[in-house]
Design a protein that fits this description.
Layout (H helix, E strand, L loop, with lengths): L9 H6 L8 E8 L4 E8 L20 E8 L5
Length: 76
C-alpha cells in the first residue's frame, strides 16, 4: 500500500483506509543537488472522511494533491 511507505502518514491513513495506488498520477517530479527530491502526486479517489474546510468532493474538489519531499543519500 502506497500510504504505508510514507512517514508521518496518520492523516493520510484517516483519509484513505484502502489502497490508492490505482488512483495516483505523478504531477511533478524534481531532484536537486542539495539531496532532496520533490514529488507531487494527484489522487483522484474520494477520501473516506469529509474534511469540511476543504469543500465537497466532486463539487469543489476533484483531486487531492500530495506534496512529498524526500531526502536521498549523498551520491558524491
Amino acid at each position: 500500500m502506497f500510504i504505508n511507505e510514507i512517514s508521518n502518514n496518520v492523516f493520510l491513513k484517516k483519509l484513505y483506509s484502502d489502497d490508492i495506488t490505482s488512483s495516483i498520477l505523478i504531477g511533478r517530479f524534481s531532484i536537486d543537488l542539495s539531496g532532496y527530491c520533490d514529488i507531487d502526486f494527484h489522487v483522484n479517489k474520494e477520501p473516506d472522511i469529509l474534511v469540511e474546510k476543504y469543500g465537497v468532493w466532486g463539487v469543489i474538489i476533484i483531486l487531492l494533491l500530495l506534496k512529498l519531499k524526500v531526502e536521498y543519500p549523498e551520491m558524491f
